[in-house]
Amino acid sequence: MQIHDRPIEQRIEALLALSREHGETFCSPSASLARERYLARHPTRILVMKCMDGRIHLPHATRTPLGIITPFRNLGGIFDLGWPYLGEMLADTVGEAIRAGHAALMIITYHFSRGEASRGCAGFDCDVAAALGHAREIRDQAEQLFGRDRQNVYPLVCGFETDGDALVVHGDDGTTLDMSTLTGAEAPDLDRRVAMLCPDMPVDIRRDLLPLLEGNLAHVDSLRGVARELDIEHREWVICIGRGFDFLHLPNTALIVGPYSPDLSEPIGTAAAIIDANMRAGRIPDDGFMLLASTPYRDVGVDRARAELKSRFLADFATRVIRREHPALAERMIRRTAVVHWPTRRLDPLDAADEPRNS
Q: What is residue 356's predicted lDDT score, i.e. its pLDDT?
């Protein structure tokens, strides 16, 4: 029995078990040493703007140690760098890198399927051109924010082809570097290809982009001829709101609403409509769905207390939206609030009294 077909309580426990496993893996001696070694050799900070789709698991697809890539996830990969909170987060992340003497690589992604258009990004109605156009708009905003010379922050548009997990790197002149068209034997030529595609990319940033492309090429090579379950059907049964969902890379399981937009009611309502449709169509059981609110923190004391308040606020806000727009669905809602200790990626559920069913 797949996780989507299980009773709701079993589904929730399986999801929380996945978060515990992720935290244990992240904190293992091997993973910790791998991060330190990687950053010593490749110090460019890597930020990725991406859709909430669980198929887009870039650490896995690029064979990069956990914790190297800083993800920003939202429904459809839709962002606006003018959003106050998002702009502040990006500026803080970049500022931290610059003060340490390092540049930042901002990878702006969209995703699509070559085998079947309907497996594309639902946020853009599977319109690849629209998704690519939005990624380019984000790139233009990043240049306004961090400088058009791209010497300190380099915004790079990349497609992600979900059937084969292949990256497609876009140059400014319309040319692309598609990992699915290369073989492992061509890995030594990637540096030259990237230099031709992105001639203005600083040498240190290109040096630190290459391991991702080399890892992706090896990953794509390993999947050639392998039969894969492509997860055509949407079967989401979780709405996540907030941040700290790095463990959630299960296809068609969760709809993640990042706390970035000034109007969170629209994506929350959209996510609830998708889950309601999934239940009505029989794609998931109608015995319940999960609302999970999460906020990361680094330090005990005020930092954690603020994270707890923020998670509870997000849960309450989402609950009000769902009750207002989908009252029948709200009766099947099971709330969970949590905070994430970011240095360990540990998900800490908050007291059950704050998380009543059908609240």
A: 46
